[in-house]
Every structure is written in C-alpha cells, then in structure tokens.
Amino acid sequence: MARLTLPQLEAHLFGAADILRGSMEASAYKEYIFGMLFLKYASDQFDAEREKIVAEQRRQGRSQAEAEERAERPSFYSDSLFVPEAARWAHIRDHVMKQVGSGLNKALAALEEENYSLNGVLQHIDFNRKVGQSQMSDKKLRDLIVHFNKQRLRVADFEFPDLLGSAYEFLIKDFADSAGKKGGEFYTPRDVVRMMVQIARPQPGMSVYDPAHGSGGMLILSREYVEDSGGDPRNLYLAGQEKDGSVWAIAKMNMLLHGIKDADLRQNADGTLEEPAHLEGGELIRFDRVITNPPFSMNYSRGTDDADKDHIPFPERFHYGWTPEKGKKADLMFVQHMLAVSRLDGMVVTVMPHGVLFRGGEEGRIRTGLLDDDVIDTVIGLGPNLFYGTGIPACILVLRPPGAKPKERQGKVLFINADRDYYEGRAQNYLEPEHTDKILAAYQGYEDIPKFARFVTREELAENDDNLNIRRYVDTTPPPEPQDVRAHLHGGIPQAEVAAKAELFATHGFDPAVVFEPKPGHSDSSSAHSGLDPGSQYLQFRESVTEKSDLRRIVETDAGVLAVEAAVTQIVTDWWGRVTAQIDAVTSGEGLVKLRHQLLSDFAKSLSEVTFLDRFAVRGIIATWWNQTLADLKALAHLRDEDGQGKVCSSLRSSTPSLASRESSNALSAQPSSVYRQMVASWVATTLDALADARSSRAALEDDVVVRLLPEYRDHLMALESQVADITARVKAAETTDNEDDGAEPDYDELSPEALKVLLTAKRRELKTRKAQFTTALKDASEAISEAEALALVMDSLRDTLLVLVTRKVVAHRRQVIAALETWWDKYKVSLAELDAEREAAADRLAGYLKGLGYE
Hints:
single chain; alpha/beta
C-alpha cells in the first residue's frame, strides 16, 4: 500500500474544513477541525501501539484474551497516548449518533483525563459551543466524523514520520488565510519566523522563550533549526506564554503532533505583561533566546497601588520607563519585558510596528535609554503586507542585554532596509529564500551595503534625536529615470543612457546594436558603446523596429540571448548530474541536514559564472527548491532508512534508462531495492486523489508522474475535457438564442441544438469511461516500471522542478532587458518636434473640415 503523502493529507484536511466553511468564520470553526483531527490521530496511533503490545504479549505465551486485557493498561503507553474506550474512533464512529457534540466533548474529556501531557489542552474545545444563535448541528458533526473516517492516521502510514506535524502547520496557515485579520492572533508567516530563528541561532543546551507564542511556530522552528544544524533538538528548553486559551491549546497540539512533549507552554487570562507565568523561586526565569511576534499596539494595565490587585508585578522590568496605558502603546513594554527575562549573554529577536522607532514622548525617552545602554543591535525594515491582520510594514528588532554586543558592533546600530525585498502575492506578500538570505548576510556581515544596510554610530543617532526611522539612514529609493531634453525635443536615444545599461545587456548576451543605429547628424568622439558607432552621441531605432511589441520579439529570439540562456540550463543540468548520487544516498536526520548544506554550497559555486544572478538569487533558487521538494526528500530518506540498503546500487544508477527505453531495462525490475517504486506509487496515489476532486482534476493531469508515465493518454483526456467544455458552452448558448449558428465554430456549424446535446452526452460518457480507465492505466504503468525507471522518473522530476525555478529567474532578467528598451521607446521614440508637426497637421485638417462645412 502506498504511503500517505503530504498533498493527500493536506487535501484531506482541506476537505474537512470545506464541510464547515461558509457556516461560520474560520476563527470560529478551527477548534472543531483541530479537535476532530487530534481524536482521530490519537485513536489510530493507539490502535497501532495496542496491536504491538498484543503481539508482544502473545510472543510471551499469553492467550489472546490475556494479551488484550494487558493492552488495556495505561502503564504500557508511557511513550504514547492512552486512549480510553469513550475516545476511541470506533466508538465515536459507530455509537455517537445523537447529541454528537456532547459525545465528542466526552471523548475529549476522557482522553485528557488519561494523559497528563494533555492537561488543560482539550477542555478549550467545545463541540457544543454556540456560534451566533446556534450550535453546530448533529448532521454537520456526523459529516465531519464520516470525512475523517476516510483516512487512517497512523505514523506507519505516513511517507515520513513528521507528516502530521507538517499537515497541521498547513491547516493552521489555511485557517489564518481564511480568518484574515484574526489570523494574526495565532499565526506568523513561517518565512518570517524562519529568518528570525536564523538570526537568533539557538544552540543545543539553550532555552528559547516566546512571551506570545500563538500557534508555537517560533519554538517549533527553533527546534528545527537546532536539528538542521546537526545538534540534538531534545537538548533545547522551549517555553512560551499565551493569553488566549484556545490558541494555547492549538500550540500544545502543534507541539505534540511535531513530537515535542516537553514544551513548557503556559496560559493565563491576564497575559505576559500583567502576569508573567514563568517563575522560579518567586523570580522571573531568564532565557538564552527570546523570539516573538507580540500583539501590536495594545493597551495594558499598570496599577497604581501595591495593594491594587491589578498592580503590575516585577515593575523592575520596566526601568527604562512606562508608556501610556491607553492609546495602544504597549509595544515597548513588551520589549522591556523581553530584555528583563534575557540572560546576560542572551538575545531578543522580535517583530514590532514601525511606530516604536520614531514616536516621541515617553516612548522616545525609553528608546534613548535603550540606545544609551547599547541594547539595540539591529533594526530590520520589512516590506508591506507580510503579516496577517495588518498591511502596514513592520520591523524586526534585534536586542542584547547591556554589554552583550560583540565588540565590533558596540556603540553602533545596524540598519537593514529590506522594504523592497519581498515577493508580491495575490492577497499576502511573502519573503522568498533569496530575500531572507540577503537580510541574514547583511546581519552577519560587518560592512555597509549601499541602499540596503549600514552601521550607524551612537553619535549620529543622537544628532537625529534618537529617531530610528530606517529610511533616514538607509534610503532604498531608486535613482530618478534620466531625461535628455535634446532627445525629447529632437528625437533620438542618448548613447550615454544605453551605455549605462551595458552590463545588463552584456550579461544576458544581448547587443543593443541589434535594435539601435546611429542617428545621423549627432556625433561625439568621446562616446563609445558596444557594437555601436562610438562617434554617435544619439541613436535611433532601426527600421526593422516598427512597433513597441517588436522589441520583445527581437530580444526573445536573439541568438546571443538564446545562447546565454541555453548555457545556464546546461550548467544546471551538468550540476544535477554531479549531485544525483548525493541525493540518492540521503538518509533521515543528519543526512538531510548535510545534503542541504552541500547542495547550497555546490550550486552557488556552479552558477558563479552566471553573472546576471547574484549570490542571493542563486542561493534562493536552491533554497526554494529544497522547500518545495522537502516532503519528497524526507520520504526518500525515510524509505531508504526502512529499506536498510543505503543508496540504490551504482550499477542500477549508472544504467538508469529513460522511460522511453523500457525494453532495455526490464531485467533491472528484479532489483531488491524498491525505494523509488514506492515513491512513484505514492505520487500516483496523490494524483488519483486529486483527479477525483473536480476542483483539481485538470491540474492533476499536469503532474509529472502522469506526463512521464502516460503522456498520450493524458493528452487525449485533456482534449476530451476541452471538447466537453466547448460543447457545453454551445448548448447553453443555443438554449438562450433562436440563432443556433450565431458564434459557432466551423466544427459545429451544421449541428442543431438537439444534435449538440446528443454529442455532449456521448463525449461526457467517453470522458467518464476514459477517466475510469485512466486510473487503472496509471496504476498499471507505475507497477510495471522497474526500480531503474522509477529512479529516472523521480530524479528527472526533482531536476525539472529546479529548472523551472532557474528559468523563472532567467526570464525575470530577460524582462529587465526588454523593459529597458521599451522605456526608451516610450520616452524618446516620438520627439516634441514630431508631436508639434502632428498637431499642426491635425489643426490644418480640422480647419479644412470646418471650411468645407461653411464655418469659415
């Protein structure tokens, strides 16, 4: 049986959310999904552990009845959850038919009661909770139960062990996307979190604290960072506090599903400022790293009397000053709390609104105190719309307790302005690996980077009244577009402007002489550029360039451009051929960590000669590829660990054929290793699941496994789908007009509406039959391939994913070349003199018309 893949599990969870979507907001129904998922996983995994215990007891000579009796003892489940009868899925599925919400609540309570690690977690989920004027109906809840029953959720069924944790993160993100502004209360985009963790660089043996932990992403990714760095993630103390009980429960489940059982997450209704929860001996616990995205712009309650029950505890935390309790200015209070709970050599990395950088009054005095103590290490400005709940840009502050800064950074603050470094999405912007890599390189380096990063002395900050507005010190505004008055007046493209773009053109293999020629009558012996006449000060477009659209065609078909782009593809292909063996040999854990570092390094070296891709873009390509294919790489590593044979034998790899030459490789199908055939089987299962979903069926036909195994069948299916859609549209058009031929294509000109309907029925029947046959055909094709063919399919798919990313960067640079030419067309193609002449000619024509009409 094929393992459950991440796309399959994500689709399964998305389907569960679809059952409730529209009934209420995502912020209201997310607990139902989380609760049901946790019940199903806990029960399924318990069944797996119970079967092992029964089998072990049987091996020890006990009867089946005795073995099953012993398997009901909680003491046997010290390393996993014990699920009592009321919380087992079979009971929920078969017996909870009426008052379903109450039955599910009882299941949650029974599960929590039997497991100390769940203490207080599941009680925040209430399946009877009213949303508006009503509560969830029995039918909806039964629909959820039926849906979750479709998929068994045992770790042994997963393509890699942490599959459920990854899927849970997907679900949290989906809820954050749906919840909009409310999503920011529990979710920080993982690209931002990952960068913050890389800045903090937690190490084994350290403690990491998030005073507003939300769904727990900062802590989980801190653990992941330690593991990816080759350290022991178990040797990391994770602590956090959350005000919202339901969000705290989400985080606790997130930790457990990621295999983190000992995270010290605490919750109270007053929150971190008014009631810090991590105390030891009546004192605040200190941490090595504080990483957080606290709620922006809150009010808080200070209290004025020691006897006041609302008196804020540990007021020494705020020795730099107190911000106004009203006016939503608690941001710097959070900052001071973070510093107060940091060890002397610790570090704080926190998201903050830009207002803390420049607002005056008490906030300004607090900021001066922080600067005087040399606490502020780095200020990083981020782009807009990266965070849920706010479209305004935010910043990241890196702070260290007094005296903790490295010597070379003392007395200075590093400003990094990354407000233009982001990828613009449809609803939300996000950071790509190349953006985070650029920010990290600037943070870790000790030199200024023009228009991006700069160290600013304490003296200069004081001269600016300790205003930390980032653009005051690092302005990323691009230079103004040059304008040549003579060219605007008399026409022509200034040779100097073309020369300024020489590097842009040369790195992409384009000679501007292809589109430009010297403009007669304008010479300057000091000018020189490429293949153009050095004596010409102004250029003009060649006669072959008659329209603006010609510029794109010329660049895209230029021999020099094509040669450079083909060379880039060849470099990547050659590099892939060299690293395939490393990917083939990867195993779980440390093997994946080493592979990632090796690929990043090797890829950067191989593409160093591609001068139009800077090192951040190059590293970003391979980092993005790694993120996109990580689930597959984890699955390969896990399968190879289970297979126990290490990499596929070299004779198999060296003789790997293309799928087109199957006859030459049938003898290899008997090879003992089945790692790659299992991978292909998982891909096929994922594709078939997607094919059954009307929303994604056509996209499923684009999957690599379909393209490579059944290319002709796929093309026929897609053609049938297009025909059905076309005929359906014609039938609808014919039903709304008496003119049945109006707008018809030649193929259907002579068909009446009745004939079209008959044809549509036949095509739909054929499509349905072919789809049903397609499932069998795809399974048969995947089962028929040898391990060598499967290896070729998997490796070619991984390679092509990388080539798509490389091509995207190449095309983006080519567009810059085209944009430069189009800018000159827009600016200078028509001169003022020509415009005047056209205006005068138009005026003369108008005068002639008026005269002819007798108005003169």
